[in-house]
Design brief:
heterodimer, A: 212 residues, mainly alpha, B: mainly beta, Immunoglobulin-like, Maltoporin, Chain A, 22-stranded antiparallel barrel, five-stranded mixed beta sheet, 5 helices, 5% helix, globular
């Protein structure tokens, strides 16, 4: 009887906690899947909503905040109205800031930060271009310093350089080696956590193909 | 083992039995459905997203008291406690709009703010630096804003019928007593400080906050940059001089140093001058900025700048028919230290000390006049943020001004004046709803020289008429003590007074903005005298008065044509005043009824080139025609100017290069600012006249900047 009651205690205690972990992982993976197949603004918003719900339940995890923010950034790129775009980005920044509080030294967060700024620039390129360009490059530098093997850093750097004219230190010749470097890093980059960000590889290959 | 199975089974049964559905609709306060809102139970995964009709249904296993949350971008978070009792429930959620910079009413009457941070910015410091007619001068850029007058021979701001002395400049909330370089007669001056030092500038054409006093017409409030983003060194060489700057950044602090030397000698050889220079204007400047973050929210800023300018010329004194030698040497020191931070969650504190000392030595026909001016200021402002609906600001400052002048004509005359001026203000900003904002305040000032307490009430309100439009109005009373040129002769003079009434409509969508503002201004107790420079105190009194009324229009658009940014401003002004030595009420010499500016900037992306073009027009200005019996009866011809600049940015040997060229009065318009008349009539009884014209017809400045 003693054995049984011990077993019972173990089961009773472990069932909720095991299921909790399991629910978190499966909820995250399902929503990431949904986000990857999203076709437009509303889909992204629904994913962001779901990630935010998970975030409020799992306050110590940075992935839900990261993905909620990432979904809104993706959505903002499609949003034509400047004021609305800014509102989305304000929210995305707030979520990203919450993630920064949990893991301030995570390279992926700085990459996402560098991905958010160009959308800010699109609202008012002439007024904001200079300021946010500087911030974007600074974020990428930090991301690189924290993890030199993060392929997304080189991918975003490549995109930025590609869009800069040659006289400003940009252009295809400068961008190409960065895409190649990113490509190599994408091939070796592996994280055992299935929730780890993995975006950018296809887009990077597409850019490389265009430059071939 | 069976026992365990039973237990497990029980859990499962309980789970199913506990399930319950919450359904309902979500809408805003007008009844419009809110789509894609996030509706969930706090701390759980149970939630859903509303559909296009605002309907939602969510199923949960939770029991007991739970917090239902609804959130959507642009709306305030909605929460409601529900007792989950396993019965399906239907609820109605009404969301309130979030107050944010974009959708809430904000006080805009009389204010043109320029900020790199705020989304409501009308002009940023970058805009200021790239306005072609401004030649990199803050005040030059603000001269393209509605409400300001083009007065080519002065270079200072003349706002809404006000004289140049009626505009005051503040830096980080602290008074800058001498913001302009000392000037020579009929030669325009410019501001001492580069626009690139500031992240935010605010230009108020009237009705401004009770925090500011001692300005009858307008204030310019400059906010210096926060911490420098990173290490940077740059050197620039211009056709008029050279500039070097360096910035160092540490984790929580930064230091920036810059030095400028300007000499117009080469410039005056290249462009024909109407002025007979003995010594070409020379200018020197050294600026230091230190910033330090203190704690989590505090920021300490220290600014120190030393300026020097000197020039010597033969002034064509047409009135007396002589050529007078004038030499001017000016030294200025300005230091300002300020601290901003949170005291606790409810209180913000801003305080500062500033010191300004200005030496001016003018030798006129061999007679030296030394003038020193100094101002020391301490200021403290507290802001209470207990509720979002009401912001209370209170504070005060003490300014000690010392004026000294020594004139050596036959004997030496020395005049010294000291004025201690404490002041207090209280202001509250009420957000009665997201549509309606109200600001009420008052300022009390005492001047030891004037021995009088002046009270200035201020009031403004803003009402949002649509998603992108709002109407605002403002009223205020303003006081300013007379200039030391008069106080030194008659220290018992009282403050000059003005009343502002402003009505404003603004439409703003994304980067397009339209503003129309009507105003009425009443002047009282202006200083009057019958003879200029008279040492007889009975010569001076406060019997002057005047009015100014008009309409200002502004349109800016940055999105219709990609890469093109342009603004148009137009001001209509009707003003008359009786002040100084005016024999009657008349339109003052600096006031033209119509002022128009068109400013265009275009970014040639492929060429990496930035081009700017401005057109400025000012209607005829009055002047006193001595051959006419009526005062201020003459009218000059209209003023026209087309200026352009071009900036090319490139990288060479891994260094950033900027090549910048600025040409003012591209087409060489022959502008006339007014006329000087001979003091004695000729043999035919007619007073001879000479036009006051710009010292340079057309000019160009070239700059090359290298940064490492």
């Amino acid at each position: 009887m003693k054995k049984i009651s011990l077993l019972l205690t173990i089961i009773l205690v472990s069932i909720p906690s095991f299921s909790q972990d399991n629910t978190y992982l499966s909820a995250m993976l399902n929503t990431i899947e949904l986000m990857d197949t999203a076709s437009g603004g509303d889909d992204y918003l629904q994913c962001a909503n779901q990630f935010e719900r998970i975030a409020t339940a799992e306050k110590s995890q940075w992935f839900p905040y990261y993905y909620a923010s990432y979904s809104l950034v993706l959505m903002s790129f499609d949003e034509p109205d400047g004021n609305q775009k800014d509102l989305l980005l304000d929210r995305a920044q707030l979520l990203l800031d919450s993630a920064f509080i949990i893991v301030p030294e995570e390279s992926e967060l700085h990459v996402l930060q560098a991905f958010l700024y160009p959308s800010r620039i699109l609202v008012d390129p002439m007024g904001r271009g200079m300021l946010y360009m500087e911030k974007m490059f600074a974020s990428l530098e930090t991301a690189k310093a924290l993890n030199p093997d993060n392929p997304r850093t080189y991918f975003l750097e490549g995109i930025n350089k590609l869009n800069l004219p040659p006289s400003m230190g940009g252009g295809p010749e400068v961008a190409k080696p960065l895409f190649i470097k990113a490509d190599a890093k994408f091939k070796t980059f592996h994280h055992e956590n299935p929730m780890w960000p993995d975006w950018g590889e296809d887009a990077n290959s597409a850019e490389l193909d265009k430059l071939q | 083992m069976r026992f365990i199975h039973i237990i497990l089974f029980l859990f499962l049964v309980m789970d199913v039995a506990a399930q319950q559905t919450i359904s309902g609709t979500i809408s805003d306060r007008k009844g419009n459905p809110v789509m894609n809102a996030n509706i969930y139970f706090e701390g759980s995964y149970d939630g859903t997203t509303s559909d296009a009709e605002g309907s939602f249904a969510l199923t949960t296993n939770l029991t007991g008291k739970q917090l239902l949350v609804a959130s959507f971008i642009g709306y305030q978070r909605y929460t409601r406690e529900l007792l989950l009792d396993r019965k399906d429930t239907a609820i109605v959620i009404v969301m309130k709009e979030q107050m944010s910079e974009i959708n809430e009413a904000a006080i805009t009457a009389g204010i043109f703010s320029a900020s790199d941070k705020k989304k409501s910015a009308t002009l940023t410091s970058f805009d200021i630096a790239t306005t072609a007619s401004a030649m990199g001068d803050i005040y030059g850029a603000y001269a393209t804003m509605p409400g300001s007058q083009k007065v080519g021979e002065e270079g200072m701001l003349f706002v809404r019928g006000g004289d140049s002395y009626e505009t005051k400049t503040y830096m980080d909330g602290m008074l800058v007593q001498s913001p302009f370089f000392s000037k020579m007669p009929d030669i325009p001056t410019r501001g001492r400080y580069s626009p690139l030092l500031f992240s935010e500038t605010l230009f108020s054409t009237g009705g401004y906050s009770a925090e500011f006093g001692q300005a009858l017409s307008s204030i310019v409030d400059l906010t210096t940059n926060d911490l420098e983003p990173d290490d940077k060194t740059s050197v620039s060489i211009m056709t008029v001089g050279a500039n070097a700057s360096m910035a160092r950044r540490w984790e929580n602090s930064s230091l920036a140093l810059s030095g400028l030397y300007a000499n117009n000698a080469l410039h005056h050889k290249l462009f024909k001058q109407t002025v007979d220079w003995i010594k070409d204007p020379v200018m020197g400047d050294g600026t230091l900025m230190y910033r330090k973050r203190v704690g989590e929210t505090g920021l300490l800023k220290a600014f120190c700048s030393y300026n020097y300018n000197a020039m010597q010329m033969n002034y064509d004194n047409f009135e007396e028919g002589t050529l007078d030698e004038i030499q001017m040497i000016n030294h200025t020191l300005y230091a300002n230290t300020s601290y901003t931070g949170e005291l606790d969650e409810k209180w913000l504190v801003r305080s500062g000390i500033a010191y300004n000392k200005n030496f001016e030595n003018i030798t006129y026909k061999g007679d030296p006049v030394h003038t020193t001016n100094s101002a020391s200021q301490f200021k403290l402002v507290l802001t209470n943020l207990t509720t979002k609906k009401m912001k209370i600001r209170m504070g005060g400052d003490v300014i000690l001004e010392q004026y000294g002048q020594q004139i050596k004509v036959d004997s030496t005359i020395r005049l010294d004046l000291t004025n201690l001026q404490p002041s207090l203000f209280l202001e509250s900003e009420l957000k009665l709803s997201s549509k309606f904002a109200l600001r009420m305040g008052a300022r009390a000032e005492y001047g030891s020289l004037l021995e009088k307490l002046d009270l200035s009430p201020r009031f403004s309100a803003a009402y949002k008429t649509g998603t992108h439009s709002q109407v605002s109005l403002a009223y205020g009373k303003f006081h300013q003590k007379p200039g030391y040129d008069y106080l030194k002769m008659a220290p018992w003079l009282t403050a000059e007074k003005s009343d502002h009434y402003i009505l404003n409509f603004q439409y703003k969508k994304n980067t397009r903005i339209f503003r129309i503002e009507a105003y009425m201004k009443q002047y009282n107790e202006l200083v009057k005298f019958s003879e200029q420079y008279s040492t007889d105190p009975s010569n001076y009194n406060n019997n002057g008065s005047g009015y100014a009324r008009g309409l200002d229009l502004f349109w800016r658009d940055r999105e219709t044509v990609k890469g093109l940014d342009y603004w148009i401003s137009y001001s209509y002004l009707d003003t008359k005043r009786d002040y100084k030595d005016y024999p009657a009420r008349a339109v003052p010499g600096y006031a033209s009824a119509h002022n128009l500016s068109l400013v265009c900037k275009y970014f040639f992306t492929r060429l990496n080139t930035f081009g700017g073009l401005t057109y400025s027009f000012a209607g005829p200005r009055p002047y006193d025609d001595k051959n006419s019996s009526e005062f201020m009866n003459g009218r000059t011809k209209a003023y026209n100017d087309i200026s352009m600049n071009i900036t090319y940015v490139t990288q060479l040997f891994k260094y950033d290069f900027i090549i910048h060229m600025n040409i003012t009065n591209l087409f060489g318009f022959k502008n006339v600012y007014g006329y000087n008349y001979s003091s004695t009539p000729g043999e035919d009884g007619i007073y001879a006249s000479q036009s006051i014209i710009p010292s340079i017809g057309r000019q160009a400045v070239l700059l090359v900047l290298i940064s490492f």
